[in-house]
Design a protein that fits this description.
By secondary structure, the protein is α+β, with helices and mostly antiparallel strands. The protein is built from one helix and four strands; from the N terminus they run E-E-E-E-H.
C-alpha cells in the first residue's frame, strides 16, 4: 500500500491479500463518515443534516401518529 500526499498518486489501487485481489474504491463510508482518496469531507458534512431530517420525520410519523 502506498500513502502519498501527491494529488496525482492518490488513485484507487488494487490490493493483493493472500491470493485474493481486492479492488480499490474512490470512497467509502465508515462509522457515518465518508472516507475518500482526496480527504475531502464536504459531501459527508452536507449529508448529515439530510440524514437527521429523514430520521426526525420517521420518528414523528411512527411515534406521534394520531
Amino acid at each position: 500500500m502506498i500513502i502519498s500526499t501527491s494529488e496525482g498518486r492518490r488513485r484507487p489501487q488494487n490490493l493483493l491479500v493472500g491470493e485474493k485481489n481486492v479492488g480499490g474504491v474512490p470512497g467509502f463510508t465508515c462509522l457515518g463518515a465518508l472516507i475518500n482518496s482526496r480527504n475531502y469531507m464536504g459531501q459527508s458534512i452536507r449529508e448529515r443534516p439530510q440524514a437527521r431530517n429523514l430520521l426526525w420525520e420517521s420518528l414523528v410519523l411512527h411515534l406521534w401518529e394520531p
